[in-house]
Amino acid sequence: MRHPPSRPAPSGGLTRRHLLHAGGAAAALTLAPGCASSGSGPRSAGWQAIPPYSLQAPDPKRAAYLKRRLAAHRKRSPYGIEPLVSSNDTSAAMAKLLLQASQGRAPDIAQVDSYIFGRIAPYAQPVQRHMKRLGLRLEDWFPTMRREMERRPGDVRGLQFTSDLRVLYYRRDLVRTPPSDWDEMIDMARPLARRGYSVLFPAGRSEGAVTTTLWPAYWSQGAELFGSDGEPAFATGKGYEAMRSCLRSVERAVGAGVVPRRVAGFDQEDDENPDIVAGRVAMFLGGSWQAAALDGLMKDQDFFRRWGVAPMPAMGGGRHVSATGGWLWAAFTDDEEKIAAGLDWVGSAYVGDRGMAEWCSLGGYLPPRQSIYGDDAYEQDPFTPVFREHIVRYGRARPSDRKYQDVSHTLQIALSGVASGTAGATEALDQALDRLVG
Amino acid sequence: MATTVNPADPEGPADPGSGLGLRDRRVPRRPRSSGRSGGVAGSSWPWLLPLGTVLLVVLVYPVLEIVRLSFTDASLVTGEPYSVTSETYTSLVTGTDFRHTLQVTFLFVLLSVVFQLLLGLAVALLVHGAERRGLRGVVATRAVVLTAWAIPGVIIGVIWSLLYQETASGVLNHGLSLLGFSGNTPFLSDPDNALVSVIVANIWRGTALSMILCYAGIKTVPDQLYEAARIDGASPVQTLFRVTLPMMLPILTMNLVLATVETFNSFDMVLSLTGGGPGTATQVLALDVYDQIFRQLNLGRGAAMAVVLMAVNVLVIGLYVRLTERQEKEI
After folding, report:
1. What is the interface pTM, i.e. ipTM, of the complex?
2. Could you give the residue ranges of the DSSP H alpha helices within A256-318?
3. Count of domains in chain B?
4. Which of A83, A210, B198, B213 has the fewest C-beta atoms under 10 angstroms from its C-beta?
5. Of the candidates A325, A189, A414, A354, which has an alpha carbon nearest to the alpha carbon of residue B276?
6. B294–A431 CB contact, under 8 Å
7. Which of A87, A99, A276 to probe the B interface (max B CBs under 10 A)?
8. B189 to A92: CB separation less than 8 angstroms, yes or no
9. Domain range enclosing A130
10. A186-208 pLDDT, tens per residue?
């Protein structure tokens, strides 16, 4: 088909070329604001949090608190705060943040999980000079958390604003003296299992599962996850035996019928809650935040009366270890004004005296700053003093070695495999080492 | 016999006596330009360049980059030192974990695709049959089946995890308890059950697309053929196997390839349903790639797995192309 020859447009009429020019100009005008330099309008700092810690928190109380705080902050600060929300899948969100930080694209202020902070810290800006301005003292943080916040002594790269740790919860009416180690726990649980009461621990494929079920038992044997060369220390020798004995205990607990196989699907400690509320559990390994949540979930709200708290069972001997966790704020922009503005905001809502007291009360977290425990605004539950003591006596942070994510993931698979009966302890550990070492 | 006319051919049909008046409407023949003498005006390159550039940037370059990274031990973190090594592939071949992942993946794909095709065909035949009989609710049925196709994989995973919940409060377990079973069936924590559960959820998900394609295929079968079969006294089963299925063969082949490639690449639903567990019972290849890169931060090993996944997909598509060519030759 032949196209008719293009005719010259009458003067003053619209041609296709005119339309294209007009369209191009409109597009340029639309995109122009995006190309403007950051100093040309009201300045703002990007603030990224995971959903439960953001304005989009599913808990209306948390969302209302943050909205109230942000409105107050906007009134007194000339600097704007631009809220950003990352994924609910914290492992993926942290991996993305690490990638962004390494490429210099991380948000100005971002929330970082303590287990990955060691890897992100080199890309974060020092914040110690702002701490004095915000009325914060490094010594106020628990020593185990202080070490996570510092890249080197005195070089603070993050401000931890929540913390937690793992404990053994037990029903007072069923367990008179809480077990001290895994063998004792399994033995005590056998008669209880016959009466329909089980023991629970998370054994799914998640960071929470290894942090609660595996690491404390492994560390209690004096073993380390990494050697001085940064390589996994459980590939051979004492470390291998220690890890195998942990997995064997899980295998034995499930095999004896005191722990249901479905714990292999428990990714988070909170997955235990429905069974606990239903009254089918005698003991469980869980997080400190669960106590307040369970008390709210139970009909008569008598969790603190019926349940007791004990140190995490050791793997032989009486050396208890508990894994601590929590979240930090870190600054990634090199603009000092933005850092100051961002830290002012997180200081007022999460890290400062009132902010930390209120936020930790709302979420059921343990304050990482010791002075907050004496703050009237911090609402403590009956177990809080015990948790605080456990942080000091047994608390231990996860290592920040380069291969931690790799090690954690492969052992999550091993733990889940053993709990589900897919593999025996030795086989699962060897397969994990295969995945790690190749 | 139909005459094929290629409008791009300036010489028109090969048979000069074919008439059709084409010779009269023939565009005046222009000298064929060569790159050397005619310049770019007569060349096809300016027309291919934009598409070629887009393909180069969004397809060829990423593929080459993935292949390059697969021969390194790079991590996801930019700036961290890495070395060039073939250890990534060696570890895949010698390690037991990757072999296990492949076994799980092939089982997952095989069972998913077979049942998706069979159920998709069955639903399409039912809908078509109902339509021919003038029954009501055909459109509603099609819409309901299509809904499964429209739901994102992650949501499907969440929906099925609620169905599979392993206590009496789980929908399926509650139903089973009403039928006299224990009500505690470990749908997701038992390794064997978990794989079956994931496959069932994936069949449910993929049957919709399969049904759409099969239904489209059935609609291409001329009614005269059914009429002829009926006059010849063919039974419904004979009509299905002698008329419907042979006529649908091209679309069934395409359905098979699409379902296979999509199932090989599927990871979102598995991620939200089991996360690959318990252990590695439901660890499919695409999920392993995701885990290696985004959870373990092993970009090199993850890239090597991605190359294997790509090779499998290329192989499936290559088979499809060969099969299609053969079918066209036979026609």
Report:
1. 0.73
2. 273-277, 290-297, 303-306
3. 1
4. A83
5. A414
6. no
7. A99
8. no
9. 44-163+324-396
10. 999 999 999 999 999 999 998 99
- Minimum Cα–Cα distance from B170: chain A residue: A274
Is residue A147 domain-resident? yes
B:80-109 residues touching chain A, CB 8 A cutoff: 80, 87-88, 90-91, 94-97
Q: Indicate whether A361 and A230 sit together in one domain.
A: no
Residue B181 belongs to a domain: yes
Percentage of chain B beyond pLDDT 90 is 49
pLDDT in tens, B105-130: 999 999 999 999 999 999 999 999 89
Yes or no: say if A160 and A330 are a contact pair by the CB < 8 Å rule.
no
Please provide the average confidence, as pLDDT, over all residues in chain B.
84
The answer for residues whose C-beta is within 8 angstroms of residue A115's C-beta and 6 or more apart is A207, A211, A325, A398, A400, A404, A408
Q: Which residues of A touch B191 (CB under 8 A)?
A: 420-422
A410/A398 Cα distance (integer angstroms): 16
Decide if pLDDT at A75 tops 60: yes
Euclidean distance between CA atoms A178 and A313, whole angstroms: 9
- Cβ within 8 Å, pair B296-A405: yes
A421 contact residues in B (CB cutoff 8 A): 190-191
Residue A21 falls within a domain, yes or no? no
A338 SS3 class: helix
Does A186 lie in the same domain as A124? no
In a domain, B80, yes or no: no
- Sequence-distant (6+) residues with CB within 8 A of B226 are B239, B243
> Which CATH number belongs to the domain containing residue B227 in this structure?
1.10.3720.10
Q: Is B78 on the interface with A (CB under 8 A)?
A: yes
Place of tokens 């003296």: A177
Q: For residue B274, list chain A residues with Cβ-Cβ distance below 8 A.
A: 265
Is A262–B189 a contact, with Cβ atoms under 8 angstroms apart? yes
* Position A10 confidence tier, pLDDT thresholds 50, 70, 90: very low
